[in-house]
Specification:
homotrimer; mainly alpha
């Protein structure tokens, strides 16, 4: 089980690091900017989660593996051949960013619940879901604020909503299924909702511009 | 006393949630963006305060009441009838935002002191005032950074100043008055200073544009 | 030794407060905005560090000295005579900002290591370096996000790189030299790298604009 969570975390780390590195490239940052934004995106959500749960120093500060993997991912994407492929094809770029961000969101949402169960003294469903959502959306939120973009969570189709449903599914299934199954279902659910939302341009009620005079 | 603090907190939660939801509507976000910004504004200051005081997991993660109230407030403001009223009248919008933000600032400033007194081991006046100001301005600061605005605290008439004076009054009066009176006076003081500042366009010394060539 | 660290911290506080105040003046903020941004920049990195290390309430909340020094520095820079000198000479302004920010970066990087050694239970080199870099870049990052600028760490010549090398030097030399020597060498190394980078316009690999179509 420990191994399963570890593998899942590395998948999420690669995905979020890639999303951070891609946004840094879009902003024309140099290699170090790309690495910094990749690493911060990949470990930011987990650091927030650990601060919330009172785990100090946060796990990312004790074990360099995630930081190393995130650094390697960012450098890899900066290799000219790969960078050219990504940055000369708007549709490919948008799609890769969407998928990477969605994978990271799904994985870190359930990783938040996993850590809350292991470390939090009280474990109400509300706490589990809240910590899960915060861990999931935290890395991307820090990434967007640093890059000067409006955070995905505030503007993207059903972003927080997807994380919330995945966290709820994971937290509830935890009681009836083996934990790896609950985590897998929760993270896949987030991913599927996000991909469908992107594909079909799902959106929540949204006031038209004509509604506003301010 | 516990009840008094609880009621005060709910008033601040509604006010800050409304300010977050209004700014989200101004930025043309969808329903979920409005809820997220409302909730983050309402509970952000308190989470910052709890992290500073070493209360983990933060109170907002243990008790869903504030999150629920903030969600309900945000949804309420998104109801078309109310939204139209607000968003078709620039002056009403600005005034409602100013009042809501000021109420939240006043309430959370004294709530910060209340929590610091309950949880902090050392309780110097400096610590109390500092925690009070941080709790007061924290939620709005997170709101403005996420929404891509310059934080109120950096640009609004005597914003941090009002919170500082209210916190100082509350912390000093705590020793001579019943605590609910100290909290009431502190928060009303913040509110009055902010409202007067808005009405009379008070401002601190401010370099004219002609002063600058950079 | 305690005294040496204390003096170093005050130097860093003055430098970072000055950088925050200058950026606030550039953004045409009033006196309170200048003070707030000066203080937040000066103590922000240390607060982040203390949260990461589990030191609650953070040291800056227990001892007002740093906040007072940062406030005084910000007010001093706002005195018309000094402000005019700075804001009427673009080159002087840029250079002063660069030097102040670099001094702060160097000092707080080694202060992070000093505090991590004093408070963290585990003290791997990775943890020390990571905490050092975070403390060094944290204050400036908060300053830039609040002021609505792209953070220096993402766009400036070898910014995080300089902090990383200084932290590494300090953490490794700690084992063989007296601690004040390790801290001095580490912080001077950061400063020298930053100044050389600014002077010679060093930069890391950076994709040309012709590389991009996104």
């Amino acid at each position: 089980m420990e191994t399963f969570a570890r593998v899942l975390e590395l998948i999420g780390t690669v995905a979020f690091a890639a999303s951070g590195a891609m946004i840094a490239m879009k902003k024309r940052m140099d290699l170090f900017g790309v690495i910094v934004l990749g690493v911060v995106t990949a470990i930011g959500g987990g650091i927030l989660r650990d601060l919330i749960l009172g785990i100090t120093p946060p796990l990312a500060f004790r074990d360099p593996l995630c930081a190393i993997v995130a650094t390697a991912t960012s450098i890899l994407l900066f290799i000219p051949w790969l960078r050219h492929r990504l940055t000369h094809n708007q549709r490919l770029f948008e799609m890769a960013l969407h998928v990477m961000d969605s994978v990271g969101l799904g994985v870190f949402t359930v990783m938040g619940i996993w850590n809350a169960l292991a470390f939090a003294p009280a474990r109400s469903t509300f706490l589990l879901v809240f910590v899960g959502v915060l861990t999931g959306v935290g890395g991307g939120m820090i990434r967007d604020v640093l890059a000067g973009n409006m955070p995905f969570i505030l503007v993207k189709y059903v972003y927080a909503c997807a994380s919330l449903l995945g966290a709820l599914a994971c937290a509830l299934l935890w009681k009836v299924l083996p934990s790896y199954a609950a985590m897998l279902i929760g993270s896949v659910l987030v991913l599927v909702i996000r991909l469908l939302a992107g594909h079909y341009h799902w959106n929540l009620p949204h006031a038209d511009d004509v509604d506003y005079k301010i």
